[in-house]
Amino acid sequence: MSELFFTPGPSALYFTAEEHIKTAIKKGVCSTSHRGQQFKDIYKECQQNLKKVMAIPEDYHVLITSSANEAWERIIENCVEKESYHVSMGAFSQRFAKIATLLGRDAHELIVEDGTVPDFDAIDVPKSVELITICLNESACGTAFPLETINAIREKYPDKLLAIDGVSGVPVIPIDFKNIDTLYFSVQKAFGLPAGLGIWIVNNRCLEKAKKMAAAGKIIGSYHRLPDMVEKAQVYQTAETPNILGIYTLAKVASDMIEKGILPIRREIDYKSAILNQVIEAHPQLHQFVKNENHRSKTVKVIKTDFDSSLIIDFLKQKKIHIGTGYGAYKKEQVRIANFPTHSKEQTEMLVDLIDAFRV
Protein backbone atom coordinates (compact mmCIF):
# COMPACT_ATOMS: atom_id res chain seq x y z
CA MET A 1 0.00 0.00 0.00
CA SER A 2 1.28 3.46 -0.83
CA GLU A 3 1.57 6.13 1.86
CA LEU A 4 -1.71 7.81 2.80
CA PHE A 5 -1.63 11.38 4.10
CA PHE A 6 -4.44 12.58 6.34
CA THR A 7 -2.22 15.45 7.53
CA PRO A 8 -3.98 18.84 7.63
CA GLY A 9 -1.61 20.50 5.19
CA PRO A 10 0.39 19.83 3.21
CA SER A 11 -1.95 16.92 2.73
CA ALA A 12 -2.57 14.18 0.20
CA LEU A 13 -2.46 15.24 -3.43
CA TYR A 14 -5.80 15.25 -5.19
CA PHE A 15 -6.03 11.88 -6.88
CA THR A 16 -5.69 13.36 -10.39
CA ALA A 17 -2.90 15.82 -9.54
CA GLU A 18 0.01 13.50 -10.34
CA GLU A 19 -1.19 12.88 -13.91
CA HIS A 20 -1.78 16.60 -14.44
CA ILE A 21 1.76 17.36 -13.26
CA LYS A 22 3.19 14.74 -15.63
CA THR A 23 1.17 16.22 -18.50
CA ALA A 24 2.36 19.72 -17.62
CA ILE A 25 5.98 18.60 -17.82
CA LYS A 26 5.38 16.94 -21.21
CA LYS A 27 3.73 20.12 -22.50
CA GLY A 28 6.62 22.31 -21.37
CA VAL A 29 4.46 24.21 -18.88
CA CYS A 30 7.33 24.42 -16.38
CA SER A 31 9.51 26.21 -18.92
CA THR A 32 6.97 28.43 -20.63
CA SER A 33 7.24 32.22 -20.46
CA HIS A 34 4.91 33.90 -18.00
CA ARG A 35 4.45 36.62 -20.64
CA GLY A 36 3.45 34.20 -23.39
CA GLN A 37 0.07 33.04 -24.63
CA GLN A 38 0.40 29.57 -23.09
CA PHE A 39 0.56 31.07 -19.60
CA LYS A 40 -2.30 33.46 -20.32
CA ASP A 41 -4.43 30.49 -21.32
CA ILE A 42 -3.46 28.65 -18.12
CA TYR A 43 -4.30 31.61 -15.89
CA LYS A 44 -7.60 32.19 -17.69
CA GLU A 45 -8.59 28.54 -17.29
CA CYS A 46 -7.68 28.64 -13.60
CA GLN A 47 -9.77 31.78 -13.02
CA GLN A 48 -12.77 30.41 -14.89
CA ASN A 49 -12.70 27.00 -13.18
CA LEU A 50 -12.31 28.45 -9.70
CA LYS A 51 -15.21 30.82 -10.31
CA LYS A 52 -17.35 27.89 -11.37
CA VAL A 53 -16.44 25.41 -8.63
CA MET A 54 -16.63 28.04 -5.86
CA ALA A 55 -19.57 30.06 -7.28
CA ILE A 56 -17.48 33.24 -7.39
CA PRO A 57 -19.33 36.16 -9.03
CA GLU A 58 -17.94 37.38 -12.35
CA ASP A 59 -17.04 40.81 -10.98
CA TYR A 60 -14.66 39.36 -8.35
CA HIS A 61 -10.96 39.18 -9.20
CA VAL A 62 -8.94 35.96 -8.82
CA LEU A 63 -5.34 36.90 -8.01
CA ILE A 64 -2.15 34.90 -7.51
CA THR A 65 0.01 35.06 -4.38
CA SER A 66 2.81 32.92 -2.99
CA SER A 67 0.67 31.66 -0.11
CA ALA A 68 -2.33 32.44 2.06
CA ASN A 69 0.06 34.06 4.54
CA GLU A 70 0.97 36.65 1.93
CA ALA A 71 -2.70 37.60 1.63
CA TRP A 72 -2.69 38.80 5.25
CA GLU A 73 -0.11 41.43 4.38
CA ARG A 74 -1.71 42.36 1.06
CA ILE A 75 -5.16 42.82 2.62
CA ILE A 76 -3.86 45.04 5.44
CA GLU A 77 -1.67 47.14 3.15
CA ASN A 78 -4.37 47.65 0.54
CA CYS A 79 -7.57 47.76 2.57
CA VAL A 80 -6.76 49.19 5.99
CA GLU A 81 -5.56 52.72 6.54
CA LYS A 82 -5.78 52.74 10.34
CA GLU A 83 -7.92 50.10 12.08
CA SER A 84 -8.91 46.45 11.65
CA TYR A 85 -10.95 43.99 13.73
CA HIS A 86 -9.99 40.34 14.05
CA VAL A 87 -12.03 37.40 15.32
CA SER A 88 -9.28 35.10 16.63
CA MET A 89 -10.22 31.46 17.28
CA GLY A 90 -6.74 29.93 17.32
CA ALA A 91 -3.13 30.21 16.26
CA PHE A 92 -3.72 30.87 12.56
CA SER A 93 -6.42 33.50 12.91
CA GLN A 94 -4.38 35.29 15.60
CA ARG A 95 -1.52 35.74 13.15
CA PHE A 96 -3.65 38.01 10.97
CA ALA A 97 -3.99 40.47 13.87
CA LYS A 98 -0.25 40.27 14.51
CA ILE A 99 0.48 41.11 10.86
CA ALA A 100 -1.80 44.14 11.11
CA THR A 101 0.06 45.32 14.20
CA LEU A 102 3.45 44.80 12.56
CA LEU A 103 2.26 46.93 9.65
CA GLY A 104 1.43 49.75 12.03
CA ARG A 105 -2.35 49.40 12.15
CA ASP A 106 -4.51 49.48 15.25
CA ALA A 107 -5.70 45.86 15.39
CA HIS A 108 -8.75 45.26 17.60
CA GLU A 109 -8.88 41.58 18.48
CA LEU A 110 -11.62 39.35 19.89
CA ILE A 111 -9.78 36.29 21.23
CA VAL A 112 -11.87 33.30 22.26
CA GLU A 113 -10.86 30.12 24.04
CA ASP A 114 -9.29 27.50 21.76
CA GLY A 115 -11.90 25.11 20.45
CA THR A 116 -14.73 27.64 20.66
CA VAL A 117 -16.47 30.12 18.36
CA PRO A 118 -17.75 33.48 19.60
CA ASP A 119 -21.45 34.23 19.79
CA PHE A 120 -22.64 36.88 17.38
CA ASP A 121 -23.44 39.20 20.30
CA ALA A 122 -19.79 39.08 21.41
CA ILE A 123 -18.62 40.58 18.12
CA ASP A 124 -18.63 44.32 18.77
CA VAL A 125 -16.88 46.23 16.00
CA PRO A 126 -15.97 49.90 16.63
CA LYS A 127 -17.28 52.44 14.13
CA SER A 128 -13.73 53.46 13.18
CA VAL A 129 -12.78 49.96 11.99
CA GLU A 130 -12.37 49.49 8.22
CA LEU A 131 -11.95 45.71 7.96
CA ILE A 132 -13.27 42.64 9.81
CA THR A 133 -11.36 39.36 9.51
CA ILE A 134 -12.81 35.88 10.12
CA CYS A 135 -11.26 32.42 9.85
CA LEU A 136 -13.75 30.12 8.16
CA ASN A 137 -12.02 26.94 9.34
CA GLU A 138 -9.41 27.18 12.08
CA SER A 139 -6.95 24.41 11.22
CA ALA A 140 -5.14 24.63 14.55
CA CYS A 141 -8.20 23.97 16.72
CA GLY A 142 -10.71 22.32 14.40
CA THR A 143 -13.38 25.00 14.73
CA ALA A 144 -15.68 26.14 11.92
CA PHE A 145 -17.22 29.62 11.86
CA PRO A 146 -20.97 29.47 11.12
CA LEU A 147 -21.99 30.85 7.73
CA GLU A 148 -25.14 32.38 9.20
CA THR A 149 -22.98 34.44 11.56
CA ILE A 150 -20.92 35.73 8.64
CA ASN A 151 -24.15 36.80 6.95
CA ALA A 152 -25.33 38.49 10.17
CA ILE A 153 -22.04 40.39 10.47
CA ARG A 154 -22.43 41.65 6.92
CA GLU A 155 -25.96 42.80 7.68
CA LYS A 156 -24.94 44.55 10.90
CA TYR A 157 -21.76 46.16 9.49
CA PRO A 158 -22.43 46.74 5.77
CA ASP A 159 -19.89 49.56 5.53
CA LYS A 160 -16.97 47.38 6.73
CA LEU A 161 -14.86 45.26 4.41
CA LEU A 162 -15.14 41.59 5.35
CA ALA A 163 -12.16 39.27 4.82
CA ILE A 164 -12.44 35.48 5.07
CA ASP A 165 -9.59 33.01 5.61
CA GLY A 166 -10.78 30.06 3.51
CA VAL A 167 -7.76 27.83 4.08
CA SER A 168 -8.82 24.19 4.66
CA GLY A 169 -12.45 25.21 4.16
CA VAL A 170 -12.97 25.95 0.47
CA PRO A 171 -14.27 24.59 -1.83
CA VAL A 172 -16.04 22.31 0.67
CA ILE A 173 -17.79 25.08 2.61
CA PRO A 174 -20.29 26.95 0.37
CA ILE A 175 -19.39 30.63 0.77
CA ASP A 176 -21.91 33.24 -0.41
CA PHE A 177 -19.59 35.83 -1.92
CA LYS A 178 -22.20 38.57 -1.94
CA ASN A 179 -21.77 38.68 1.86
CA ILE A 180 -17.98 39.05 1.84
CA ASP A 181 -15.41 41.26 0.12
CA THR A 182 -12.31 39.12 -0.01
CA LEU A 183 -11.34 35.49 0.56
CA TYR A 184 -7.97 33.80 0.35
CA PHE A 185 -6.61 30.26 0.54
CA SER A 186 -3.56 28.18 -0.20
CA VAL A 187 -3.74 25.04 -2.31
CA GLN A 188 -2.01 22.38 -0.18
CA LYS A 189 -5.11 21.55 1.86
CA ALA A 190 -8.61 20.96 0.46
CA PHE A 191 -7.55 21.42 -3.17
CA GLY A 192 -4.85 18.78 -2.74
CA LEU A 193 -1.92 20.41 -4.54
CA PRO A 194 1.76 20.83 -3.66
CA ALA A 195 2.41 23.85 -1.45
CA GLY A 196 3.67 27.14 -2.86
CA LEU A 197 0.60 28.84 -4.31
CA GLY A 198 -2.01 31.14 -2.82
CA ILE A 199 -5.24 32.47 -4.29
CA TRP A 200 -6.59 35.89 -3.29
CA ILE A 201 -10.16 36.71 -4.36
CA VAL A 202 -11.22 40.36 -4.07
CA ASN A 203 -14.15 42.50 -5.11
CA ASN A 204 -14.23 46.07 -6.38
CA ARG A 205 -14.90 47.50 -2.91
CA CYS A 206 -11.41 46.34 -1.92
CA LEU A 207 -9.97 47.68 -5.15
CA GLU A 208 -11.53 51.10 -4.68
CA LYS A 209 -10.27 51.26 -1.09
CA ALA A 210 -6.73 50.53 -2.29
CA LYS A 211 -6.95 53.20 -5.01
CA LYS A 212 -8.25 55.75 -2.50
CA MET A 213 -5.42 55.01 -0.09
CA ALA A 214 -2.82 55.25 -2.87
CA ALA A 215 -4.26 58.57 -4.07
CA ALA A 216 -3.89 59.90 -0.51
CA GLY A 217 -0.20 58.99 -0.55
CA LYS A 218 -0.45 55.83 1.54
CA ILE A 219 1.94 52.95 0.87
CA ILE A 220 -0.13 49.99 -0.34
CA GLY A 221 2.74 47.68 -1.22
CA SER A 222 5.36 47.42 -3.92
CA TYR A 223 5.17 44.88 -6.74
CA HIS A 224 1.96 43.44 -5.30
CA ARG A 225 -0.16 46.56 -5.05
CA LEU A 226 -3.79 45.53 -5.45
CA PRO A 227 -4.62 47.89 -8.36
CA ASP A 228 -1.58 46.60 -10.26
CA MET A 229 -2.45 42.97 -9.53
CA VAL A 230 -6.01 43.45 -10.78
CA GLU A 231 -4.81 45.25 -13.90
CA LYS A 232 -2.45 42.37 -14.69
CA ALA A 233 -5.06 39.71 -13.91
CA GLN A 234 -7.53 41.26 -16.34
CA VAL A 235 -5.16 40.26 -19.16
CA TYR A 236 -4.20 36.97 -17.42
CA GLN A 237 -0.79 38.14 -16.28
CA THR A 238 1.08 38.52 -12.99
CA ALA A 239 3.63 41.07 -11.84
CA GLU A 240 6.33 38.46 -11.27
CA THR A 241 7.16 34.98 -12.54
CA PRO A 242 4.55 32.91 -10.66
CA ASN A 243 4.20 29.24 -9.79
CA ILE A 244 3.07 28.28 -13.29
CA LEU A 245 2.97 24.55 -12.56
CA GLY A 246 0.80 25.18 -9.51
CA ILE A 247 -1.61 27.40 -11.43
CA TYR A 248 -1.86 24.82 -14.23
CA THR A 249 -2.51 21.96 -11.79
CA LEU A 250 -5.06 23.99 -9.83
CA ALA A 251 -6.93 24.74 -13.07
CA LYS A 252 -7.07 21.04 -13.91
CA VAL A 253 -8.03 19.86 -10.42
CA ALA A 254 -10.78 22.50 -10.26
CA SER A 255 -12.01 21.19 -13.62
CA ASP A 256 -12.06 17.63 -12.22
CA MET A 257 -14.09 18.84 -9.26
CA ILE A 258 -16.55 20.55 -11.60
CA GLU A 259 -16.90 17.32 -13.57
CA LYS A 260 -17.49 15.27 -10.42
CA GLY A 261 -19.85 17.89 -9.03
CA ILE A 262 -19.35 20.01 -5.94
CA LEU A 263 -22.51 18.62 -4.30
CA PRO A 264 -21.31 14.98 -4.45
CA ILE A 265 -17.94 16.13 -3.09
CA ARG A 266 -19.66 17.86 -0.17
CA ARG A 267 -21.86 14.82 0.51
CA GLU A 268 -18.75 12.63 0.72
CA ILE A 269 -17.18 15.11 3.13
CA ASP A 270 -20.31 14.88 5.30
CA TYR A 271 -20.20 11.08 5.33
CA LYS A 272 -16.50 10.89 6.17
CA SER A 273 -16.91 13.55 8.85
CA ALA A 274 -19.75 11.55 10.41
CA ILE A 275 -17.80 8.29 10.65
CA LEU A 276 -14.78 10.10 12.08
CA ASN A 277 -17.01 11.70 14.70
CA GLN A 278 -18.50 8.30 15.53
CA VAL A 279 -15.15 6.63 16.16
CA ILE A 280 -13.91 9.56 18.26
CA GLU A 281 -17.00 9.54 20.44
CA ALA A 282 -17.08 5.75 20.84
CA HIS A 283 -13.39 5.42 21.72
CA PRO A 284 -12.69 5.37 25.50
CA GLN A 285 -9.37 7.23 25.15
CA LEU A 286 -10.27 9.83 22.52
CA HIS A 287 -12.36 12.99 22.81
CA GLN A 288 -13.61 15.80 20.61
CA PHE A 289 -11.61 18.96 21.32
CA VAL A 290 -14.45 21.16 20.02
CA LYS A 291 -17.33 20.51 22.42
CA ASN A 292 -20.09 22.23 20.44
CA GLU A 293 -20.92 19.91 17.55
CA ASN A 294 -22.26 22.83 15.51
CA HIS A 295 -18.83 24.46 15.60
CA ARG A 296 -16.77 21.40 14.63
CA SER A 297 -14.91 21.52 11.37
CA LYS A 298 -15.86 18.87 8.85
CA THR A 299 -12.48 19.07 7.13
CA VAL A 300 -10.00 19.12 10.05
CA LYS A 301 -10.80 16.89 13.02
CA VAL A 302 -8.97 17.78 16.23
CA ILE A 303 -8.92 14.92 18.74
CA LYS A 304 -7.79 15.06 22.36
CA THR A 305 -5.98 11.92 23.51
CA ASP A 306 -5.71 10.46 27.02
CA PHE A 307 -2.13 9.44 26.19
CA ASP A 308 0.92 10.82 24.42
CA SER A 309 -0.47 11.44 20.95
CA SER A 310 2.74 10.24 19.31
CA LEU A 311 1.68 6.68 20.18
CA ILE A 312 -1.29 6.64 17.82
CA ILE A 313 0.62 8.67 15.23
CA ASP A 314 3.43 6.10 15.22
CA PHE A 315 0.96 3.19 15.19
CA LEU A 316 -0.73 4.54 12.07
CA LYS A 317 2.60 5.41 10.47
CA GLN A 318 3.52 1.72 10.68
CA LYS A 319 0.42 1.11 8.55
CA LYS A 320 1.65 3.79 6.09
CA ILE A 321 -1.00 6.26 7.23
CA HIS A 322 0.03 9.74 8.31
CA ILE A 323 -2.05 12.03 10.53
CA GLY A 324 -1.13 15.39 12.04
CA THR A 325 0.12 16.24 15.49
CA GLY A 326 -1.63 18.71 17.71
CA TYR A 327 -0.71 22.31 16.94
CA GLY A 328 1.76 24.25 19.10
CA ALA A 329 1.24 23.62 22.82
CA TYR A 330 -1.18 20.77 22.01
CA LYS A 331 1.38 18.69 20.13
CA LYS A 332 1.56 15.85 22.65
CA GLU A 333 -2.11 15.76 23.66
CA GLN A 334 -3.95 16.05 20.36
CA VAL A 335 -3.98 14.71 16.83
CA ARG A 336 -5.43 16.38 13.74
CA ILE A 337 -6.98 14.45 10.85
CA ALA A 338 -7.78 15.99 7.49
CA ASN A 339 -10.98 15.16 5.62
CA PHE A 340 -10.43 16.67 2.19
CA PRO A 341 -11.99 15.87 -1.20
CA THR A 342 -9.09 13.64 -2.21
CA HIS A 343 -9.56 11.31 0.78
CA SER A 344 -11.81 8.53 -0.46
CA LYS A 345 -14.59 6.97 1.57
CA GLU A 346 -12.72 3.64 1.53
CA GLN A 347 -9.48 5.22 2.80
CA THR A 348 -11.34 7.00 5.57
CA GLU A 349 -13.21 3.83 6.56
CA MET A 350 -9.88 2.01 6.82
CA LEU A 351 -8.48 4.80 9.01
CA VAL A 352 -11.57 4.67 11.22
CA ASP A 353 -11.21 0.90 11.68
CA LEU A 354 -7.57 1.27 12.74
CA ILE A 355 -8.39 4.06 15.20
CA ASP A 356 -11.25 1.99 16.64
CA ALA A 357 -8.91 -0.94 17.29
CA PHE A 358 -6.15 1.16 18.87
CA ARG A 359 -5.70 1.13 22.66
CA VAL A 360 -2.91 2.16 25.00
What is the CATH level 1 assignment of the largest domain? Alpha Beta
Stated plainly, the CATH topology of the largest domain is called Aspartate Aminotransferase, domain 2
Order of helices and strands: EHHEHEHEEEEHEEEHHHHEEHEEEH
Provide the spatial order of strands within the biggest beta sheet. Answer: 2-10-9-8-5-3-4
CATH architecture of the largest domain: 3-Layer(aba) Sandwich
Structural class: alpha/beta
Number of helices: 11
Distance from N terminus to C terminus (CA atoms, Å) equals 25 Å
User: What's the CATH superfamily of the largest domain, by name?
Assistant: Type I PLP-dependent aspartate aminotransferase-like (Major domain)
Low-confidence blocks of residues: none
State Rg. 20 Å
Mean of the pLDDT scores? Answer: 97
Number of strands: 15
**The biggest beta sheet, please?**
7 strands, mixed
Describe the global form: globular
Quote the beta fraction.
15-25%
User: Percentage of helical residues?
Assistant: 25-40%
Number of domains: 2
What does this structure look like?
This protein has helices at 17-26, 37-54, 68-79, 91-102, 147-156, 204-215, 226-233, 244-260, 262-282, 310-318, 345-357; strands spanning 4-5, 61-65, 83-88, 106-111, 131-135, 137-138, 143-144, 161-165, 182-186, 198-202, 286-288, 300-305, 321-322, 324-325, 334-338. A 7-stranded mixed β-sheet has the order 2-10-9-8-5-3-4, with helices on both faces. A 4-stranded antiparallel β-sheet has the order 11-12-15-14, with helices on one face. With 360 residues, it is an alpha/beta fold. It has 11 helices and 15 strands. The model has no long low-confidence stretch (mean pLDDT 97). The protein folds into 2 domains: 4-11 and 261-357, Aspartate Aminotransferase, domain 1, CATH 3.90.1150; 17-259, Type I PLP-dependent aspartate aminotransferase-like (Major domain) (Aspartate Aminotransferase, domain 2), CATH 3.40.640.10.
